[in-house]
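This is your field. Please look over both lines of this record.
***
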Amino acid sequence: MKKNNSRKKVSELWGAAFTKKPSEAVIAFTSGRDVTSISPADLKLIPYDLWTNKAHALMLEKTGIISKFEAKKILKGLLKLEQLAVKDNFLLDPNKEDVHTNIESWLIKELGIEIAGKLHTARSRNDQIVTDMRLYLRDQVLVFINNSVELVQTLIGLAKKYESAPFPGFTHHQHAMVTTFGHILAGFATMINRDIERFKGWYSLHNVSPLGNTVSYGTSFPVDRVLTAKFLAFDGPDTNSMDAITNRWETEADLAYSVIILMNHLSLIAQTLIILSMPEFGMVKLADEFSTGSSIMPQKKNPDPLEIIKGKAGFAQGQLLSLLSMGKNNFIGFNRDSQWTKYIVMDLLSECELAPTILAGALSSMTVNTKIMEAQCHKGFIGATTLMEQLVATYNLPMRQVKVVIERAVKKSAGHDKVTFAALYQSLNEEGLVLPITESQVVAWQEPEIIIGLTKSFGGPGKKSMKQILVLLAKQVEDHQKWLLQKKKDKQKALKLYTDAMILLERK
C-alpha cells in the first residue's frame, strides 16, 4: 500500500525553490524581534562596570583614600565576580535597579559592608554610568569600523574586477552618461571610507574619561583622574565635571549620527542593487543566501536583507531624533530622563551593527551581467553629452551653442537610441555651423568603450583615473586597519597597566 504523505509536516513556509538557504545570521537580520526578545540593557555593561570598578579601586588605594588591605579584598571580589559573569553565572536582580547596584550589592554580601562599602567612595552612579557607556560605545565604534572596513575591501575587489565594464550612469532615474560598474562600486567604497573617518573622529572627540566627576561637581577626596583615565585607555580626563554628566546624550547622539550617515549610504547601495536586480534591469542577480521567499508565491526570491537595511536606516534616524530631544531640555547636572539615552542608543547600535557585513555578503555573492549593462549603454541617447564635449573640444566651439545643436539633433533622432549623423548634420546647418565631421566620428563618440577612454577627469571612470582611485582607496583601508590595531593595542596597554598594578598591590 502506497504511503500517504499528505499529512507530512511543513516546517518552512518557503525555500524549496532555493539552491542554497540563507544563513542563520541573515535570517536573524531579516526577522528582527519577531520571535526573539531583547536582553536587559545593563547586561551589556557588566564587563565595563567591572573594569571601571577595578580602576577606581586601584586609584583609591594609590591615593591613600582606602587601605591596601581593603583594596586587595575589593579587587579579589571583583575578579571572582568577573569569572562568574564570563560564565553567565551572574544574573542581574531587577529589584536592585541597575548594574552598579547589583555589583555593589554582590560585593557587600561577599565581603561585608565594612570593606565593599568603601568602593563607592569619591564616586557617584552619575560618573559611573557615563564612564561605562563611554567604554561600551567606544568598543561599538571599533566594531562598526571593522565591519565597514570589510565592506570597503569587498567593494574595492569588485571595483577592480569590473573596472572597465561599461555601465549606464543615471540622474533623475534616467540614463545620463556612460560610466563603468567599477566606477560605481568605487564610489560606494569612497562613501564608506568617509563614514569610517567619521567614526574615527567620534573616537578622537569622546575618548576622555568622565570618572571622578561624581554627581557633576567633583569631590573633596584627592582622586587621581589621570590615573583612572590611563587604566581605562582614555586619552585623559575630561576638563569639566559638570559637562559630561549634564550632556549625557551628546556622546550618544554624535555616534548615532555617524551610524545614520553610514546606514543612509548602505541604504543607497541596497536600493541600487534592488533596482538593478529587477527583471526589467537584470544587471545583477542576488544569491539565494541573501534572498528570502514568499508564504504564498512559490517563485519568489525577494531581496529582503537589502530591504531590511533600508528599514533599519529609517529606524536609526528616529532614534537620533529621540536622543536630540533628550538633550534639548536639560538643566545643569544630572537629570533622570537622560537614563533613556542608554536604551535608545543601544537599540540603534544592535539593529545596525551587522548591516555592513550583510551588505558585503550580498555584494560578494551576487552575479553580475555585464552584457546587459553594456547593452543599456547604447540606449536613451546616453552618449549625447560626450558627443557634445568632443564637438566643443575638436572644433573650439562655445559649449552653450553646441548644446543647442545636440538637443535639436536628439529631437530629430526620435525613434533611435543615439544621435544620427543626418540629424546632427541638419542641426549644425540650422545653427550656421559647417564642420568637417564624418559619420564614423559621430558613431564613435557615442560608443561606450570610446566614451570611457575619452574620460580624462580625475575621479571619473577613465582607465588612469580608476587606477589612481583604487590605489587611494586601498591606502585609506590600510590606514583604517593601522588605526584599529593601534586602538586595540592602547586597550591592551591599559589592561596590562592595571593588571600590573593589581599584581604589585598583591605583593605589598
Remarks:
- Strands lie at 166-171, 174-180, 284-285, 367-368.
- The first strand starts at residue 166 and ends at 171.
